[in-house]
Amino acid sequence: MATQRDLSPRHLTADEAFQGLLRRARDFAHDGKFPARQLANTLHSIAKLCAARRVDVADGAVKKTLEGLETAAVRGAPSMVPQELANALWAYATLGMAPEAETWRALETAAVRVAPGMVPQALANTVWAYATLRRAPETETWRALETAAARVAPGMVPQELANTVWAYATLERAPEAETWRALETAAARVAPGMVPQALANTVWAYATLERAPEAETWRALETAAARVAPSMDPQALANTVWAYAMLGRAPEAETWRALETAAARVAPGMVPQASASTV
Fold it and tell me: What residues contact residue 270 under an 8 Å CB cut-off, 6+ apart?
């Protein structure tokens, strides 16, 4: 009978097999033998494990591995395809670690090169990473990502649309007219499938950018707000009602009742900031 290893958060970093994988990754990085795809996938996997609290980013072996992967990223960035670049940036953002200057320049250069081939998810993850790291793209990079956003918006799903407009708002960069029209159209199309966080992030972005949605988009978001309100957590509810207030728009009767009911439900779990934004 096989023995099942303990892969709980407390024991994964001490697991011999896992440590062996980290050593192998460091060796590949040191020897310059890390192809771009494997490099991006390794960064992505470590970030997911850290996000799930399976490993600690401050752990010595993990930290040394990430340092080695930084060096490999400089070499690998010129051959990255869109998904690999997006995965690498997503990983750094999820880890809360901004790459060193040389690595960042290599990834920025790669972003300009691969943006024309990005699919919606890669574009959304890329701009989300920039915003999460609070790093504004260079002018050339921004133009390339703007063009890509306008191109891929018709194929975005709700989370991709929400992440993209959230990134624009967080970076305090209003989209160009063509990009805005494409994102507006996408917002109206995907609103029926939005979950609470996606809805809240979307209306928060509109309010932060001080851009009122067009009538069709607003109706779609209103309908979505009424639908998802019963599942909203305190922060999503607070961001939603704050957006209504900042946009100077009163919710329709059905939406208002749904938000009122949600407020009564989540009030016991609100932190002070969420409570202030709600009232």
Answer: 234, 238, 278
* Angle between the N-to-C axes of helices 139-152 and 101-114, in degrees from 0 to 180, rounded to the nearest 10: 40
Distance CA 191, CA 176 (A): 22
Give the global pTM: 0.88
Cα–Cα distance for residue pair 164/126, rounded to 1 Å? 9
The residues near 219 (Cβ < 8 Å, ≥ 6 apart) are: none
Whole-angstrom Cα distance, residue 21 to residue 84? 20
Cα gap 258→120, rounded to integer Å = 32
- Tokens representing 2? 């096989």
- C-alpha distances out from residue 24 to 71, 120, 224, Å: 15, 33, 48
Contact 175, 140 (CB under 8 A): no
User: How do the pLDDT tens digits run along the chain, 279 residues long?
Assistant: 344 544 455 556 777 888 888 888 888 888 877 889 999 999 999 999 888 888 888 888 888 998 899 889 999 999 999 999 999 999 999 999 999 999 999 999 999 999 999 999 999 999 999 999 999 999 999 999 999 999 999 999 999 999 999 999 999 999 999 999 999 999 999 999 999 999 999 999 999 999 999 999 999 999 999 999 999 999 999 999 999 999 999 999 999 999 999 999 988 765 545 444 554
Q: Do 160 and 120 meet the contact criterion of CB atoms below 8 Å apart?
A: yes
